[in-house]
Structure formats: structure tokens, C-alpha cells
Amino acid sequence: MNRRHLVRVASVLAAIVLWQIVSSRHVDARFINFGNVPAPTDVAQATWSFLQSPKVLHHFKNSILRVFSGFGAATILGIALGVAVGRSKRIEDIVLPTIETLRPIPAVAWIPLAILMFPTTEGSILFITFIGALFPIVLNTIHGIEALDPRLILASRSLGANTWSVLREIILPGALPSIVTGLRLGMGASWLCLVTAEMIAGQYGIGYYTWESYNLQRYPDIVVGMLFIGVFGMVSSALINRLGMWLMPWYRPSEGTT
């Protein structure tokens, strides 16, 4: 373990120690109150109990399937839309204003409309995770394509490349770093939207578990749900980053990039 890793581990441990102190002493500052915030020791006990629950695998499975299903649909449509908008001014004028209008709408605002649009709660949940991932993927794909040097495309056409060859060999590889960034942001947004989506779910899911814990005032369990969402989101984004590095052996981020 090098020095940077030691510093990162130490910073996490310091944050946990500070959390333990302010929660166990029920610190009540002027603008924030830690009286009802569970301590890390309480969260650790709740985590152990949750992992021993017979429902834990159902919670994990449902949430992972929902996130990856919505994210997968957003990936296909988002990249296709991004390429179309990035390559055609006419399509940009038709599609981009709608995208920019819908993009700032938070996921929670889509819940009533999602319930009306889809006959099942599962369809509504998938739609919310899909919406969360779609816009980062679309916009980063557009950015990556617009940042390409147009001389590369002109040179390839002068050498006889057709439209499909230009797309496959010039446009997509050149835009891939931005697309991968959009995929990472989209995956994170899908997990962020999970709690909102699973508010309208049935009986299973990490987001549903977190919301149910709040309603039942099981405060340590709220933090357990939050932590698992964070861990799953971090691992998912790391997997996408690894996949991106495998697809882009020619591309390496600068030394200062984390």
C-alpha cells in the first residue's frame, strides 16, 4: 500500500471517528442536530443483522436488476441519440431542446407520471432509473463527438471511407472517452434514483428497505441502506471504468486524474 492509499484510508477512518464522537455525544449545534443520528457502532450491528436476514438477497437482486435494466436501456438510446445529435445539426435542432428541457427535472417529479404511464410498478421503477442515466450519457456522447477534429473525418472520406466506416473507425473511438465518462455518471445517477424509484416498489430493493426503515424509525437501518447503495454504485462505476480502459488501450488519463 503506497502513501496515497494510506492517506485515503486514514481520511475514511478519521471521518468514522468524527461521526462516532458527534453521534454518541448527541452534539446539538446551532444549525445541525446529531441527537438522532445513529453511531457507527449501531450501524455495524444493524449491518450484521441485515446480512443475516433471509430477505437480503432479494433486496440486492431486485435493486441490481432494476438499475442495470434501466441503465442498459439508457445506454443504447443515449449513445444512439448522442451520435445522431452530434452528427446532424437538423436532428440537434429537433431533439436537443426537448432534452435540455427534461434534463433538470428531478427523478421524484417523474413518479406520478411514471405510475400513470406504466401498468406495473416494476415498469415505473425501471423508467425512473432509465431517466436518471439517460441524460448524462446523451450529453457526454454529444460532447465527445463535437470535440473530434473534423480533419480526421475529412481525411478518412478522402481515402474512400463510407459513412459506416467513419462511424466505426473514427467517430466512436474518438468519442469513447467522453462516452465512458457519461456511462459512469449515468450509472451513478441510476443508483441515486433508486431510492426514489423504489418508493413505489413492492416489497424488495435496497431503496425500498431504506425508505421502509425511515417510516419505521429504524435509524441505523437507514444508514445501512445508504451505505450499500453507495458501495454498489462505486463498484458499478469502477467496472464501467475498467471496461472503458479495456476498450481504449490507447487512452490513459493524466496523472492528476483520480
TrEMBL record:
Topology of this chain in the membrane: Multi-pass membrane protein
Record bears the keyword Transmembrane: yes
Cell compartments where the protein resides: Cell membrane
Keywords: Cell membrane, Membrane, Transmembrane, Transmembrane helix, Transport
Annotated TM spans: 64-86, 124-145, 189-210, 222-240
InterPro entries per the UniProt record, alphabetical: MetI-like, MetI-like_sf
Gene3D superfamilies given in the database record: MetI-like (1.10.3720.10)
Protein name as it appears in the record: ABC transporter permease
Major site of localization recorded for this protein: membrane
Similarity comment: Belongs to the binding-protein-dependent transport system permease family.
Keyword Transferase found: no
Domain ABC transmembrane type-1: start-end pairs: 60-240
Coiled coil region boundaries: none
